[in-house]
Design a protein that fits this description.
The protein is built from three helices and no strands. It is an all-alpha fold.
């Protein structure tokens, strides 16, 4: 049994732009990007189960030293324990 091809008609401009942007960002062809998006939408694991952290990659990140310093400055007063708050 050979590989099948499909054609999707009448994609709206915003959907086409989002797919093209994803392909560009990931360094993939439009065809490969669409196949990966379909597999993900259908709950199929395109990595064969070897890459678990990819499921959360959009939620994870690393702060730069500057971002951490800004967070620390903005939350400094939250580290003070007021005795009267615990009475």
């Amino acid at each position: 049994m050979g590989m099948k091809s499909i054609t999707v008609h009448n994609l709206d401009d915003s959907l086409e732009a989002m797919i093209a942007e994803r392909a560009r960002k990931d360094g993939l062809s439009l065809n490969k990007t669409v196949k990966l998006l379909l597999r993900k939408a259908l709950g199929l694991d395109p990595t064969g189960g070897t890459e678990k952290k990819g499921d959360f990659s959009e939620l994870c990140g690393v702060w730069s030293k500057g971002e951490k310093a800004e967070f620390d400055r903005n939350t400094k007063d939250l580290r003070k324990v007021e005795r009267r708050d615990w009475q």
